[in-house]
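Re: that backbone. Tokens:
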């Protein structure tokens, strides 16, 4: 099974190979229906949740799964890779992969939060019991405190650190021995004092008993750690605050994974440009007036036929880079729609004349031949433009208008040569 082979090496010690293949067979069938369009996209998110529950929690697992969805499932459903049905299946696969990536990130977060919550509950229970049965409870609390993989710290009512474990010190980038007796403000540092510190002051004043937030912490070495922090107050038998206890989870890798998955789901894998989905999202939130330039490379199929897809892919990457450079001064967004089609969005475009000027910049950016794989390749593009005073309520109509304008201007023949 291709999916099982792709995930080989991504650790899942709770399952045997036979169990893995059976699970992936069921998930693969469900995803096939999603890509085919016969079931809802939410099924892809559910599939990712099942994968995380089976202990596939590494970035390799999701990246390889995305390849299976976007390549293997598409090839199985449409082996000819041509025509409108192929385009529909491919677009549906991209959406399914995005839902799968989002579901994977959400499931990872829930797993991390469950571990954090369990640690916090255990720490609070041990700390509160210490007030009534000190000798036995303190031994338990010390064991939880020292051995936890998450950061744990206690703070007195004056805002000074009573104690902190090694995991907490590591997150803050400080030696554990320097933390007791220091004020929280001093340990956090000026660069990090903000909402978390305000919430901490409210707790010390007795205005709240608990808060939770995700915060960025700038460490002394200049690196940044993303921390999921929970703080709770522990009260004595008289109802007064005895001390505060905090539990911190380093979610830096999870956040980086989420950012990477979002990028992969919203950008073209070949050129790195924004894809169709991100373009429409930016269009919906664009600041008017807006200008749109729709580009189609002339004769690109012949480049692929004569020199192969490796040369063709390289040409597309260079075209994307040149288009980005051409509209850099107007903060234009360049996206690849698929194949040899690109689109440019210009926000706050002053007038239709300016949009015409921008389209000329784009055309000139492609005039200089490019050397690719020892071939000298020249390309040209047909460009259609649409200028609007307001953001369109029906983006599909805008795309149709731009597409129509482009085909009216489409040149005949292909301009490239080999040296």
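Recovered sequence:
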């Amino acid at each position: 099974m291709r999916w099982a082979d792709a995930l080989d090496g991504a650790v899942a010690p709770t399952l045997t190979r036979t169990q893995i293949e059976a699970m992936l067979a069921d998930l693969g069938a469900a995803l096939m229906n999603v890509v085919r369009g016969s079931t809802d996209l939410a099924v892809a998110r559910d599939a990712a949740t099942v994968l995380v529950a089976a202990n596939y929690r590494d970035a390799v697992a999701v990246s390889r799964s995305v390849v299976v969805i976007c390549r293997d499932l598409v090839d199985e459903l449409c082996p000819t890779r041509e025509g409108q049905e192929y385009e529909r299946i491919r677009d549906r696969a991209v959406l399914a992969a995005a839902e799968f990536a989002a579901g994977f990130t959400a499931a990872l977060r829930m797993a991390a939060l469950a571990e954090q919550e369990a640690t916090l509950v255990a720490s609070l229970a041990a700390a509160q019991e210490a007030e009534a049965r000190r000798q036995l409870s303190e031994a338990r609390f010390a064991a939880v405190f020292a051995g936890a993989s998450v950061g744990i710290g206690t703070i007195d009512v004056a805002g000074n650190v009573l104690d902190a474990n090694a995991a907490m010190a590591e997150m803050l980038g400080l030696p554990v021995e320097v933390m007791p007796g220091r004020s929280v403000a001093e340990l956090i540092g000026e660069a990090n004092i903000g909402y978390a510190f305000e919430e901490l002051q409210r707790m010390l004043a007795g205005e709240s008993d608990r808060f939770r937030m995700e915060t960025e912490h700038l460490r002394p070495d200049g690196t940044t750690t993303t921390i999921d922090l929970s703080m709770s107050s522990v009260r004595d038998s008289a109802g007064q605050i005895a001390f505060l206890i905090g539990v911190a989870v380093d979610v830096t890798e999870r956040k980086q994974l989420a950012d990477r998955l979002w990028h992969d789901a919203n950008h073209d894998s070949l050129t790195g440009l924004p894809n169709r989905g991100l373009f429409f999202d930016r269009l919906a939130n664009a600041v008017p007036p807006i200008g749109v330039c729709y580009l189609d490379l002339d004769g690109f199929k012949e480049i692929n036929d004569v020199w192969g897809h490796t040369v063709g892919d390289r040409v597309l990457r260079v075209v994307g880079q040149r288009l980005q450079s051409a509209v850099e001064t107007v903060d234009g967004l360049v996206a690849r729609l698929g194949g040899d089609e690109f689109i440019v969005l210009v926000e706050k475009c002053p007038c239709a004349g300016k949009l015409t000027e921008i389209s000329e910049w784009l055309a000139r950016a492609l005039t200089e031949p490019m050397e690719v794989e020892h071939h000298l390749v020249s390309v040209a593009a047909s460009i259609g433009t649409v200028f609007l005073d307001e953001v369109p309520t029906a983006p599909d109509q805008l795309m149709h208008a731009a597409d129509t304008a482009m085909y009216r201007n489409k040149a005949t023949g292909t301009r490239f040569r080999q040296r």
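The chain has 15 helices and eleven strands. The longest strand covers residues 224-235.
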